[in-house]
Write a structure and sequence with these properties.
Elements (H helix, E strand, L loop, with lengths): L1 H17 L4 E7 L14 H19 L4 E6 L6 E7 L2 H7 L11 H13 L7 E8 L7 H13 L2 E8 L4 H14 L6 E5 L6 H5 L13 H4 L8 H30 L6 H7 L3 H12 L12 H4 L4 H12 L7
Length: 325
């Protein structure tokens, strides 16, 4: 059975290599004041960071020609942090520059993301926008439907992840938007309730990690099929390793920005005094120190001394040495 499972997994990977999707993806994050809410662990903003990290890795590793860009739609204005690139390190570096506050501008962010995708260098890449929504949508339904029709006309797929905001109006608006922009099931609406503890783990089981037209995660990418306990365990371990690597990278970046040299454990062990050196230092402290011979006074210095200092210098200079006593 184990051998059959390995053969099946290898054949699935072979099909995945042939069916890898060529995509240029713009990821829009919600950095509004609502992102500070702690209904997700540890809060909505950091939960978005973990999810974006996994999503960007999945896109870039899915095909060597894929590109990923990053935007924010909260604060004072919509900000494009990265146009679509192939370097994961730059995506991670952007997280430290983002500040939370204000409200989101959903429609403006999608329009700017469409322009960024339009300027992609490789025109063979399909266009996709993944937007995380962690605050109420202010646009009405008609505005969203009109925007969805424009995106569909320009062959842009949109995945919407709604985090925490569970009002009927919010869900109906976003669902209507995705249904309008959808073309042959290339767009998805993921509504995540606050009872989900780890957002990144939950999204691994959703269609946004399966590429265009995936009904579930195992259709295009067998490695995400969590129906197999062994594969689910491998995914969990891989996710934990990625989080640990990211934590070490953030600490190293903070250390470099602060300019404080960090001593390596090997160097610390080398600099630690050995017992022989400590014993020699104690013996040296116990030995009586020999008095230093008095330095002769220059004639030009004598003129600058007053009577008491001159008498003190003469007594010090003429004091008998231990050998004379």
């Amino acid at each position: 059975d184990v051998y059959k499972r390995q053969v099946s997994t290898q054949s699935t990977w072979g099909r995945n290599i042939l069916n890898m999707v060529l995509e240029a993806t713009m990821i829009i994050m919600d950095n509004s004041a609502y992102a500070r809410n702690g209904d997700f662990m540890p809060n909505r903003w950091e939960a978005q960071q973990d999810s974006v990290n996994n999503l960007a890795n999945s896109k870039l590793q899915g095909n060597p020609e894929n590109t990923v860009g990053l935007m924010t739609m909260g604060g004072k204005r919509v900000e494009t942090l990265l146009t679509p690139i192939q370097e994961m390190s730059k995506v991670l570096a952007c997280f430290h520059k983002i500040q939370l506050g204000g409200t989101i501008q959903f429609s403006s962010a999608l329009q700017i993301a469409q322009l960024a995708l339009k300027q992609r260098l490789n025109k063979n890449l399909k266009q996709r926008i993944v937007v995380f929504v962690a605050s109420p949508i202010t646009e009405d339904e008609n505005t969203l439907v009109s925007l969805a029709k424009k995106l569909k006309k320009n062959s842009v797929a949109v995945d919407v992840v709604n985090i925490g905001e569970q009002s009927d109006e919010q869900i109906n608006k976003l669902n209507k938007f995705v249904e309008t922009v959808k073309n042959q099931d290339n767009s998805n609406f993921i509504n995540v309730a606050p009872n989900v503890q780890i957002l990144a783990d939950y999204l691994l089981q959703t269609p946004i990690f399966g590429g265009a037209g995936a009904a579930n995660i195992g259709d295009d990418f067998g490695m995400y099929d969590t129906s197999d306990p062994e594969i689910a365990e491998v995914l969990r371990i891989s996710l934990e390793e990625e989080r640990e690597r990211r934590r070490r990278q953030e600490e190293e970046q903070k250390r470099q920005e602060g300019g404080e040299p960090q001593q390596k454990p090997a160097e610390a062990a080398e600099n630690k005094p050995t017992p022989q050196l400590e014993q020699a230092a104690q013996q040296q402290q116990q030995q009586p120190q020999q008095p230093q011979p008095a330095q002769p006074i220059e004639e030009e210095d004598l003129e600058n001394l007053d009577e008491e200092e001159l008498l003190r210098s003469c007594l010090l200079y003429t004091s008998p040495s231990p050998r004379d006593s």
